[in-house]
Amino acid sequence: MDITLIQVILLLVTGFLAGIINTLAGGGSNLTLPALMLMGMPAEVANATNRLGVLMQAVTAVAGFKRHKKMESDDIIPILIPSVIGGLLGAGAAAYMPSSLIKPLLLGTMLTMAFVMLVKPSVIAPEPGTPVKKVMQTPHSWWGLGMAGFYGGFVQAGVGFVLLAALAGTLRYDLVRANALKMLCTLVFTLVALVLFIAKGLVLWVPGLILAFGTMFGAHIAVNMAIKAKASTLKWFLFVMTLCGCIAAMLH
């Protein structure tokens, strides 16, 4: 498809903002999906093309968190297994199920997250010094990670909130390390989903790669912000982004 200069700027700017939002919280696809659909893409094509940006921002963020030694390594495989299985099932569902299911899923996720953070924020953002739990010690965390993977494979928008609920809420990682692991899970199940979408011929490469360039730059900036920010600042940013996600889901 032909792309104008205005559309290139739109993709770069929304990609940059989404890269920051997704790395620090979640919901950046609430910006990028409408931007892609404004270019005339059907919802399923925009959903698939968006994954290029998500994948590249995840690669950038994971490398950044690892460079700053904020990436936990001893529990990665047990965390990734249910995420990948869920992502594969979710991507399969997205390729064949009607897109009308996206809005209820997105809105339900946002509202639940906002309610939990308002009533009991410590569930999502553990206090400093809270002991971390291992996946094998908390079998119910497999369900949370699997559901996050399915949701991410299916729609992507807002999956960061679901992953943070599993990683910080269930396994009790602090928000910086939870964000690092969140981006690693996102990288893996997005790669799985993207392969399926490419096989179905749903990915438009030129706008997807332009978007990806913006998200990578945003993710790079966001990692440095996450490392330097106070836990309370990250908590409030997460809360505000959750509310914004609710509003975007209701208006979309």
Protein model, in words:
The chain has 252 residues and is mainly α. α6 crosses α8 and α7 packs across α8. It is globular.
Uncertain stretches of 5 or more adjacent residues: none
Count, helices: 10
The run of helices and strands is HHHHHHHHHH
Rg from alpha-carbon coordinates: 17 Å
Q: What is the count of β-strands? A: 0
Total domain modules: 1
Kindly report how far apart the N and C termini lie.
24 Å
Helix content: over 70%
InterPro entries: TM_pro_TauE-like, TSUP
Transmembrane segments: 76-97, 104-123, 143-168, 180-199, 205-227, 234-251
Pfam families: TauE
Organism: Photobacterium lipolyticum
Features:
10 helices, TSUP, TM_pro_TauE-like, Probable membrane transporter protein, 252 residues, 76% helix, cell membrane, transmembrane, mainly alpha
Describe this structure in a few short sentences.
This protein has ten helices and no strands. The chain has helices at 5-24, 29-38, 43-67, 76-96, 102-119, 140-154, 159-170, 175-199, 205-228, 231-251. This is Probable membrane transporter protein.
Secondary structure elements and pairings:
Elements lengths: L4 H20 L4 H10 L4 H25 L8 H21 L5 H18 L20 H15 L4 H12 L4 H25 L5 H24 L2 H21 L1
